[in-house]
Structures are given as structure tokens and as C-alpha cells.
Write a structure and sequence with these properties.
By secondary structure, the protein is of the alpha+beta class. A hairpin with a 5-residue loop joins β1 and β2. α11 packs antiparallel against α12, α11 packs across α15 and α12 runs parallel beside α17.
């Protein structure tokens, strides 16, 4: 009879499938060229294959067979998986389970995996910054005072900086480098005191990490966009741990923590009108004429600074008059070279943002920008590799340079009140002005998204508040509906005499008298707008500044 017990609890703490149905065979001689050996075998019910052991001598085989028969006669259960008597299986030293991986190990492996994906240097830096913010909250105790100030420095400068910590060999092997001498002690302390990653199953531990990623180094709350970005990366690390078998489920879903609302809409107040934009470009031309066209590309063609850096003469169509075109091919934003695959190269061009490698994005060039670029090339020439813009040393224009020039231009071109406002506070705001103008001019969003390098959904979300004139058009529609209704069914005057009734002299009222004349509507903000008074839907310069 087949007697198999499934899930019989083992005193050692593990459930095993056991059986009492065992068949033991006679010892069999195996003859080979170099001599004979003897084999003993037995079949355990429920096991797909028989258990066999081969011995050099017949007596040893008979001894093993006797041990199996003794266990059967005593009524001892056999382990189905191994085919051994249960007591014998328990006596075998079981391998110790591997130690639980710590948060620091998991986070470091995640950073390495992202680095291996050849992500942009800025993305790598963002990953490291998020992990640096989270990790100190996942130590089992605060670091000693002598090491406290080195924790974040060692995390960002070594633990999560894969390019510095690991050297990739030509054969593909990864070699761990020796850390700097000054960080050896703090790195050792962090390895010993990092919590096991499964501690995140504790709601209090998970919430402590979420709170930590919400603060800056000075203890104040970080910007909403920063918190949201860190929260997304934290969730990615947790899912990475689940895929590796370090966690069974995502504990962050039970933490009941709501991040602040992310700000994704462009502030209408940063959008500069054409008059002020020309004043700003003129101020730049007086102080740094080689950068006038650099800012002009952002204002007229909505190029990102990194895309402007990569603008090449071979990408431009610059007719003597009319519209031109730029076929944007690359992006080269400024970022610390230590996050790059080639740290010795200060700048490295990449594919366009949100585009595949080799993909080109055509952008129209306004006639004023065409003229500006032609003047720039005529006066300053081009780099040997065809680049339009370059520094005095021939490299890319440093961010510190074009930011300083812009601050000086704002002080000169704008009034004190305007300069203190968000109006065109950053050169990047010129790009916002270009995209806003395209949308307000009635260019289809699909076309604007193509020119700007956005998706349509992102475009309409980010620039929703920069599409002006909609309120005035709405008021016109409402006013027109009232006018149409009044023309269709005029309201009778209750003071008018009934048909066939002629009022007496004492009933007549001089409708043109000062006492009964309806006074004109007062001027001011509380006046009911009309179609005629609304005027053009395009806002004036003052309206742009008030956005």
C-alpha cells in the first residue's frame, strides 16, 4: 500500500513529504573492464527515480542495504525528496540559508544596473541623489559623530557612483576598486549597520524612509517635484528587490503616505512678450554679442540649452529671407563628468531628449532668427567641427557663463519691478515663451509637440495655463448668447399702455427727462463686458507681464 504523507512537519522546522512505502532490491554486481563494483538500490513511493549507491566491495554494499532494511523494519518514515530515512536525512548538515541582503546592497546593485543601461549622466546623478537621501534613514542606529558628516559624501561619491567604484575590464569583468583611505571607516560602518531590506515590511521603517526623502540637507522640506522624483525611484528600487527575491511584496503601498502634489504646469508669469524679449536680446548684444543668437534660438525655436550647444551649420537652412529650418540631431546638457562613461571628456553629445538615437527633430526658424544666425556666423564664424556656438577656448558654452550674462541682461533691460518678478528669470523660460506663442497662435498641439520635442499630453499639461485668450473668447460667447436671445424675443415694457388704450395727459411721462433717464453703466472692473468692449483677443504687453 502506498502510504505517503504530504506536508508532515519536521522537528527541524521544515515540512517534508514522507512515506512508509519502500522497496529494497538485492545487491547487484556491475562488471566493468577495470573490475567489478556492487550497487544497492531501493525505491521510495512518490519519488520518480530509485535511490542507488555503488560501492567498490560487496560487503560495503550489503552493509548499506542492511541499514535501509533496518529502517524499513523499524517502521521509520522515508523522506520522499531525498529517498533517505527521515532520521538519516535530519543528520545530514543542511546548508545555512544565505544572509538577508541589506538595503545598502540592494540600492548599490540598483545603481549599478541603471549605470549599465547607459542612461544619461543627469539621470544617473538623479538616481544617486535619491538613494543618498533615503539610505541614512535605513541604518539600524545613527552613525557616530566622527563619521556622521562623511556618510552622505561617501554614499554619493563612492557607493552609488558606479563609474568610480567599478572598473570594467576589456573582457567584460567588473573589478571593485579600493575606496579612498578617508572613507574606509565610514563605508565599513555603513555595511555593518544597514538594515536588511525586508525591514521595509515594517510600516514605521518604510515611513521613516519616505520622510527622509522629503527633506533637504538643511532639514527643510524639498521641492514637490524633487520629492515626487525620489518617491518614484524609491519604488523602483523596491520592485528591483522584489524581482531579486529579497521582498515578497511592495511595502510602500501599505505605508499610507501621500507625496505633495507635483508642480508640472509652467507659471504664466515667466512667459515674456516680444517687446521685452527684444529688449533682453539687445541687452545681451551689448554685453556678450556672441550669445545673442544663443538665446534667440531658445526664444524663437524653443531649443533646449543642450540642443543649442550641438547646433551645427550642417543642420541649418538659412535663406536670405523668409523662414528657415533646423534639423536638431543631438543634445549635450552640462553635467559633472564623473557621471559619464568617459569622465575625462567634459561634454558628451547624446540623442535628443525623448527621442531614439539617430532620430532628427525639425524645427522652423523664424525670419528674425534666420537673420540673427546669419549675422552671428558672419561675425564670429563657426568651430572646426561646424558648431555655431562655442566658448573662447573652442569648447561648449559653460552654464555659469550664459546664466551670468542673462542675469546682467535682465537687470539692464527690465524695470526693477519686472526684474524682481519671475518674468524670464532663467534662459530656459525663453523656450516656454516660444512654445506658448505657438499654442496661442493656433498651431495644432500635435505640430507644437513635434517642434518642441514633447508628447501631446505632456505639452497640454505643462503649458495649460500659458494658453491665453480663452477667457475673453468665453465672455464673448456668453455675451453673444444674451444678445441673440434678446433679439429673438424682446421683453415687453410693463409701463407701456395696453393696445387700444391711450393714456391721459396726467398719465404721460417724459421718457427723456433727467429723472427717468437710465444712467450709463459705470466704468471699471465691475462693468459687464460686451462684444464691442472686449476688443482683440491677443493680450497686450502689460497682459503678458501680468501672467
Amino acid at each position: 500500500m502506498n502510504r505517503i504523507q504530504a506536508g508532515v512537519p519536521d522537528p527541524g522546522g521544515e515540512d517534508r513529504r514522507t512515506t512508509f512505502d519502500v522497496r529494497v532490491w538485492s545487491v547487484r554486481e556491475l562488471r566493468r573492464k577495470n573490475g567489478s563494483s556492487w550497487q544497492v538500490g531501493w525505491q521510495v513511493a512518490g519519488r520518480p527515480r530509485a535511490n542507488t549507491r555503488t560501492f567498490a566491495s560487496k560487503s560495503a554494499a550489503e552493509s548499506r542495504r542492511a541499514e535501509i532494511l533496518t529502517a524499513v523494519r523499524k517502521g521509520e518514515a522515508f523522506d520522499v525528496e531525498s529517498g533517505l530515512p527521515l532520521a538519516e536525512w535530519r543528520a545530514i548538515a543542511q546548508p545555512a540559508p544565505p544572509p538577508a541582503r541589506t538595503w545598502l546592497e540592494v540600492a548599490r546593485d540598483f545603481a549599478d544596473a541603471k549605470w549599465a543601461e547607459h542612461q544619461a549622466p543627469g539621470t544617473r546623478r538623479a538616481v544617486a541623489e535619491a538613494l543618498v537621501a533615503i539610505t541614512p534613514a535605513l541604518f539600524d542606529e545613527p552613525p557616530p559623530a566622527a563619521l556622521a558628516e562623511l556618510v552622505r559624501e561617501a554614499l554619493g561619491g563612492w557607493a552609488f557612483l558606479t563609474g568610480r567604484r567599478i572598473t570594467l575590464q576589456p573582457d567584460g569583468r567588473r573589478i571593485e576598486n579600493e575606496p579612498p583611505a578617508g572613507w574606509a571607516a565610514v563605508l565599513t560602518w555603513m555595511e555593518r549597520h544597514s538594515r536588511p531590506v525586508h525591514d521595509l515590511d515594517d510600516i514605521d521603517v518604510a515611513r521613516a524612509a519616505l520622510v527622509a526623502l522629503s527633506h533637504r540637507l538643511d532639514g527643510k522640506q524639498a521641492a514637490a517635484n524633487t520629492i515626487s522624483r525620489r518617491r518614484i525611484l524609491f519604488n523602483q528600487v523596491v520592485n528591483f528587490a522584489i524581482a531579486r527575491g529579497d521582498l515578497d511584496a511592495n511595502p510602500l503601498q501599505r505605508a499610507q503616505w501621500t507625496p505633495p502634489r507635483q508642480v508640472v504646469v509652467v507659471d504664466r508669469r515667466v512667459v515674456v512678450d516680444h517687446t521685452r524679449a527684444l529688449r533682453l536680446l539687445a541687452a545681451v548684444a551689448e554685453n556678450a554679442p556672441e550669445l545673442e543668437a544663443f538665446y534667440g534660438c531658445s526664444y524663437y525655436a524653443a531649443t533646449r540649452p543642450g540642443e543649442t550647444q550641438e547646433l551645427n551649420i550642417n543642420q541649418l537652412t538659412l535663406p536670405e529671407s523668409g523662414w528657415g529650418e533646423a534639423a536638431l540631431e543631438g543634445n549635450n546638457p552640462e553635467v559633472s563628468p564623473r557621471w559619464s562613461d568617459e569622465p575625462d571628456q567634459p561634454r558628451q553629445a547624446r540623442e535628443l531628449k525623448h527621442r531614439e538615437k539617430g532620430e532628427v527633430r525639425p524645427v522652423p526658424l523664424h525670419p528674425e532668427l534666420v537673420a540673427l544666425l546669419r549675422r552671428h556666423i558672419e561675425r564670429f564664424g563657426i568651430a572646426p567641427d561646424g558648431r555655431i556656438f562655442r566658448s573662447k577656448t573652442g569648447g561648449a558654452v559653460k552654464a555659469a557663463r550664459y546664466l551670468a550674462v542673462w542675469r546682467t541682461a535682465r537687470k539692464k533691460a527690465l524695470t526693477a519691478v519686472e526684474a524682481a518678478s519671475p518674468l524670464a528669470r532663467r534662459p530656459y523660460d525663453l523656450r516656454h515663451a516660444a512654445v506658448s506663442r505657438w499654442l496661442n497662435a493656433g498651431v495644432p498641439p500635435t505640430q507644437v509637440a513635434e517642434w518642441a520635442g514633447h508628447g501631446v499630453r505632456v505639452l497640454l499639461t505643462v503649458y495649460a495655463k500659458c494658453i491665453v485668450g480663452q477667457e475673453q473668447r468665453a465672455l464673448q460667447l456668453i455675451d453673444a448668447s444674451f444678445a441673440a436671445e434678446q433679439q429673438a424675443s424682446p421683453v415687453p415694457d410693463p409701463a407701456a399702455p395696453a393696445p387700444g388704450h391711450e393714456p391721459a395727459d396726467h398719465d404721460r411721462v417724459d421718457t427723456e427727462s433727467a429723472e427717468t433717464r437710465i444712467p450709463p453703466e459705470p466704468a471699471g472692473p465691475f462693468r459687464t463686458p460686451s462684444v464691442a468692449s472686449l476688443g482683440p483677443t491677443e493680450p497686450s504687453n502689460e497682459d503678458y507681464f501680468s501672467l
